[in-house]
Amino acid sequence: MGGTHRTRDRAPATLxxxxxxxxxxxxxxxxxxxxxxxxxxxxTATLPRWxxxxxxxxxxxxxxxxxxxxxxxAPARAAGRRPTPRTMALVGLAYLLLGGVYAxxxxxxxxxxxxxFVGLTWLHWGQGDLYALDALGSPHLDGVGVxxxxxLVRGGLPMLVPMLRFPExxxxxxxxxxxxxxxxxxxxxxxxxxxxAGLGVGFATLTLGTLIAGYRRDGGRAWRRDAGETxxxxxxxxxxxxxxxxxxxxxxWHSLRHVVRLVGVDEGARGALAAAGPVAALLWxxxxxxxxxxxxxxxxxxxxVVAGVGTAxxxxxxxxxxxxxxxxxxxVVVVTWMDRVERMALGRRAAEQ
Length: 353
Fold this sequence. Notes:
By secondary structure, this protein is mainly α. It has one domain (52-341). The chain is 78% helix and 0% strand. It contains 14 helices and no strands. The two termini are 27 Å apart. Mean pLDDT is 91; it is low at 1-8.
């Protein structure tokens, strides 16, 4: 990767707080409160189908799909260098090879592929929250065990907690993925009360243990923010129905935090931030995401036409999520590479001081 080296900095803490955190806190809290009130009034059963799928549909264009559409530029920038045709081609090749292998796995073993998607998303969403906590400055995360626990807890909140509360709906969503390939999910354990109780107790214990370990290291403001977010997400995913909860989380929680990360490694976006504020920085990054977002949407439409699947909302949502799954594997590789480069840069900086 050619170009002039510069020191890699994390995303600005002020931007992470203002754009990556506060909007998500407001939206998630409002949706949690609204759902709780509606449930108490017995009104959730009347939620229109289009409204249940709206957050997922919105993620096609609003942060969700676009947040990975700058991956061809991000690795070089994370290393402090300018993207070149070679670096962009390498990322494209990774997407082609990894995505192609994963697409083949969906065709021959969709149940295995579905389980892998849940696991990848668990890891990736945990990665995203850990990065955000680091960017905000979190001394309580100074330790391998606490960091690993945080990844497992934060990724498990959107991927496991909905299953504990809404097992039938959760299984129906995954079953729709597998049904695209003419198979059935089965997985009766997902709705078995004993299995869910065991998973719930285990995950709650992991959550509490991780927070206690962090508190013992540093129980200051950063720990309180971490604990507050964790408790908020526990309540949110226990109360809000899965499709809505995960769709909103994908757009305004996970994706926005990654977009802030992209601003942090892009000199142009950082310049726009310094000159005109957060909106200008987001627009800068958004413009870079437009071409590959458009290509992805066109490719998705092409897959839909060739596959000849129906137009029922559940079927379209399943096709979209399988498409996202195929993109998720190389995206996780890119983000993991960015994490590695950042750790190396921070290690060199600490050695120089």
